[in-house]
Design brief:
The longest helix has 18 residues. This protein is an alpha/beta fold and 243 residues long. The protein has 7 helices and 10 strands. Helix 1 packs across helix 2. A 7-stranded parallel sheet has the order 1-10-9-6-2-3-5. The protein has a 3-stranded antiparallel sheet with strand order 4-8-7, with helices on one face.
């Protein structure tokens, strides 16, 4: 892993936004894997600001988000589709059909998971997968468990993960869905390049385990040790437990 440390999250986001836009200029048909949550908010703010100020061509870019809550979709408060529209898609010139998320409202969730895997494959796979990390070491919604799903699947969300997402649901834990559709570990690991962002001291234990600990299903992010091209971008708090 290539470990990069920043004094604060804004510097991290600015650096990653610069690299993302450079990658878009080199490959206008770039396929991006995208995260949600609090961590990438500064990144998306920087991407939309630069896209509005200058010429950044999103017209041929394909994106695939890591996950979506079961039962939620466009227009639903708390859905990742609504989050992505507000944070990025509504502000850049991306073709709507090229902005992919799993459909949390699908009548047949297993079929929707299979469809999402096919869509990623038909796009040629993910060029750059951007990740966050949960305080329990999850990436996407691949939660710590005795075993991990390889492909896009229905994930049961742990209580601490739901609590971490309560802010998107008015602070009400009871309003946070109990299940989500999530890319699996093999889907994530299939990306040609992975960039993981982590900010805040509350992520420091998971970050230390991911980098220096054993590879274990009890800390899903630790599997990134097996990927040939991973960059880990940390602010001061997230790097606190590293040597």
């Amino acid at each position: 892993m290539n470990i990069e440390r920043f004094d604060h999250e804004d510097a991290l986001a600015t650096t990653l936004a610069t690299r993302t836009i450079e990658a878009l200029s080199l490959n206008p048909r770039l396929v991006l894997g995208l995260p949600t949550g609090r961590t990438p908010v500064a990144l998306y703010r920087e991407l939309r600001s630069r896209s509005q100020r200058g010429h950044v061509d999103w017209s041929q870019v394909r994106t695939f988000n890591l996950d979506e809550f079961v039962g939620l979709g466009a227009g639903d408060a708390g859905s990742y589709r609504s989050y992505m529209q507000a944070e990025l898609f509504d502000h850049v010139r991306i073709e709507p059909l090229n902005a992919g998320l799993p459909d949390g409202r699908a009548a047949n969730l297993a079929a929707e998971c299979a469809r999402y895997e096919r869509a990623i494959a038909l796009a040629g796979g993910i060029d750059i997968q951007i990740l966050g990390i949960g305080a329990n070491g999850h990436i996407g919604f691949n939660e710590p468990a005795d075993s991990l799903a390889a492909e896009t699947h229905v994930a049961v969300l742990q209580q601490d993960t739901r609590a971490a997402n309560a802010g998107w649901f008015g602070g009400h834990l009871s309003a946070v869905p109990t299940h989500a559709l999530s890319m699996g570990m093999a889907t994530i690991m299939g990306a040609r390049e992975i960039v993981l962002m982590a900010t805040g001291e509350e992520k420091s234990a998971a970050v230390a385990g991911m980098i220096d600990g054993p590879i274990t299903t009890r800390l899903p992010a630790s599997f990134l040790q097996l990927h040939s091209r991973v960059t880990v971008m940390l602010d001061r708090g997230a790097a606190l437990r590293l040597a």
